[in-house]
Design a protein that fits this description.
This protein has 22 helices and 20 strands. It has 627 residues and is α+β, with helices and mostly antiparallel strands. It has a six-stranded antiparallel β-sheet with strand order 2-3-1-8-7-9, covered by helices on one side. Helix 5 crosses helix 15, helix 10 crosses helix 20 and helix 12 crosses helix 14.
């Protein structure tokens, strides 16, 4: 049975100001924030001052519009603003005694009622994607929370007596507020690690992000952060059979997809040709009656590329089966240069995925406001389970392991032993320090990176430990935060069915053998989808991407050389990057370096990251000089 939902579902830009001394917030200052948030695509907006609090929202409708305002339920002292999609509305309504209410309570009203009943424990009762704030005027207290993986982000900053917050960074660092300096330590860590892995700091000094699965309570100037969900929490283990696990996943996946396609507009979806995105398409297409469209990062292939890499034909097969259009994204050096010079890492999108920018532009042009993605599946429920054999070996099942890994050819048998036994066993000897991208960093940045906590990862014998490592690294949340920031800017709501909290917690509860059952990797999702057309797709080998990777690398190199020609002379002075070494490396680089040894690959991609940091440094140095 479908959840009872009101009309008026939307994606929202939210923002607010709290005067921690209790003075009245300036309406002009709040309006300045509203102007910045209002530059993002929206249909309707409202902002109001409630004494010591100023709150605002800009809505972009996903379903039929309703009257929009920033106000609390009648008779309540609590004001709600948020960007939220609740997936357990019926359950929550029943627990709150609101199941028979007419009209149906909206998501904000349910959250206010849940807060009144459970207080700070309330976020753990919610399922869905959310970032929200509640102002309790009776207590003079602000309460903010984001969902368990921070699929929706919240940022905040203190400016004297003011506590300012929003679900994007721009309103916190634009007029009427001063632009902050770069956080040099965080930037050094970014260059060292290749991504922004910190759960709380941003790349701007004094601007913080709420960690995943956390809430923040502010009363006066006292601030407290509580974590209500952690990947490391103890959970009961699934004790059913493999078939029962398949049936459970089937129900959870169906519910996760259905709850994420409720919109009055066309729906877009990633379609890479891989298992995860293909499964989401196959589940969503029958629900949408021709309103689904697929998008691929790749350009239209040549005949030679098609022979080298069947990823293109896999996507075409799925699109043909479900009669949906499939758009390709042609990234060129010229278009990437425009993106590179305009992109501001400090505003939250640090994912180095340039084709996604082109893809979002196509999605907007086609009138969609929701983008489904299979991303995140192989971190959890579609984990490959490659280390299972090593785990069984250590438990004394050596003969069975050898039998299962034996292949028709000696070469294949040796490869199996290397991939499924040797590498996991070596990985379990200890945590591995992540490689660095500091080849072109200044000496100051290298010293800061050396004094910071080195990033470590685990890729060893134990499947559950690998999954926990993925979340603890914050790599997962970095991608989610990045696409959330970019999606708000473009008016696109990203949805990740395979990262539904119920599915992730189910994955964490499973015995490791269910991820590679009877030699079949990613067994559960393959079996769930086995009867869905096209039947030939679900048990194919995993996709390979040599042609796409090679083409992308050539584009990146050509872009860096264009950048050197156009921008190099303007950006020679840098505190963070050794520009002379960088410019020499770009001039002599070859695309083969990126596919060569680990050292050469790190050097190649370190050039691109150094360019991004140079552009960011120049942008914020100019603002500092203006001040």
């Amino acid at each position: 049975m479908a959840e009872k939902r009101p009309s008026g579902l939307s994606m929202n830009g939210v923002f607010g100001i709290i005067n921690t001394l209790g003075g009245t917030v300036s309406y002009a200052t709040l309006s300045g924030m509203a102007a910045t948030v209002g530059s993002m695509p929206h249909d309707v907006a409202d902002h109001r001052v409630y004494g010591a609090a100023g709150l605002g929202v800009c809505r972009r409708w996903l379903t039929e519009p309703v009257n929009c305002s920033v106000e609390g339920p009648a008779g309540s002292n609590v004001i709600f603003i948020g960007d939220i999609r609740l997936d357990n509305r019926d359950e929550l309504s029943a627990r709150l005694g609101l199941g028979d209410c007419t009209p149906v309570p909206d998501d904000g009203q349910l959250i206010v009622a849940a807060y009144a009943k459970w207080g700070a424990a309330m976020p753990d009762t919610l399922l869905g994607d959310f970032a929200f704030a509640l102002w309790d005027s009776a207590k003079s207290e602000l309460f903010m929370a984001c969902d368990y993986l921070a699929t929706c982000s919240l940022y905040y900053r203190r400016l004297g007596d003011l506590f300012v917050f929003a679900n994007s960074i721009s309103p916190l660092v634009s007029e009427p507020f001063s632009s902050p300096a770069l956080d040099v330590e965080a930037t050094a860590a970014l260059l060292r690690d290749g991504e922004h892995y910190h759960s709380r700091r941003t790349l701007l000094a004094g601007v913080n992000q709420l960690p995943p699965g956390s809430s923040l309570t502010l009363r006066g100037s006292a601030e407290r952060i509580d974590q209500y969900w952690s990947i490391n929490d103890e959970r009961s283990q699934f004790s059913g059979t493999a078939q029962e696990a398949v049936e459970t996943l089937g129900r959870l996946l169906s519910s996760a997809v259905r709850s994420r396609v409720q919109t009055s507009y066309p729906v877009a979806a990633h379609l890479s040709g891989g298992l995860d995105s293909s499964a989401i398409i196959a589940q969503a297409a029958p629900l949408l009656g021709g309103q689904l469209r697929g998008y691929s990062w790749m350009s239209v292939p040549s005949e030679q590329q098609e022979r080298e890499d069947p990823e293109w034909s896999t996507g075409q097969l799925l699109a043909s089966t479900y009669q949906l259009p499939l758009d390709y994204c042609a990234l060129s050096a010229e278009s990437m240069l425009q993106l590179l010079t305009a992109h501001d890492l400090a505003l939250g999108d640090t994912a180095d995925l340039w084709s996604e920018h082109i893809l979002r532009g196509k999605v907007v042009d086609d009138g969609a406001r929701t983008l489904l993605s299979g991303w995140g599946g192989d971190q959890f429920i579609t984990h490959y389970g490659n280390s299972l054999y090593a785990q069984r070996l250590l438990s004394g099942d050596a003969l069975a392991v050898v039998r299962e890994l034996r292949a028709p050819s000696l070469r294949r048998s040796l490869a199996n032993l290397r991939n499924f036994l040797l590498l996991p066993l070596m990985g379990s000897l200890g945590k591995r320090v992540m490689p660095g991208y500091l080849g072109f960093a200044s000496e100051e940045v290298k010293q800061l990176a050396a004094t910071g906590e080195p990033l470590t990862t685990y890729s060893g014998v134990f499947v559950e430990r690998e999954m926990r490592n993925q979340a603890n690294l914050v790599h997962l949340c970095n991608r989610l935060r990045s696409w959330y920031a970019a999606g708000l800017k473009d008016g696109i709501s990203y949805r990740y069915p395979l990262l539904d909290r119920r599915i992730v917690e189910f994955a964490l509860s499973l015995p490791p053998q269910y991820f590679r059952w009877q030699g079949e990797g990613r067994y559960l999702l393959r079996t769930v989808m086995a009867d869905s057309p096209p039947l030939s797709l679900w048990y194919r080998n995993q996709k390979a991407e040599p042609a796409r990777v090679r083409d992308a690398t050539n584009i990146v190199l050509a872009t860096m050389r264009l950048w050197l020609h156009d921008r190099g002379e303007q950006l020679k002075v840098s505190r963070l990057v050794s520009t002379e070494a960088l410019y020499q490396a770009i001039a002599s680089a070859t695309s083969e370096e990126s596919l060569g040894s680990k050292e050469k690959s790190l050097r190649f991609w370190g050039m691109l990251r150094s360019i991004l940091v140079l552009e960011m440094e120049n942008r914020y140095s100019s603002k500092e000089q203006e001040r």
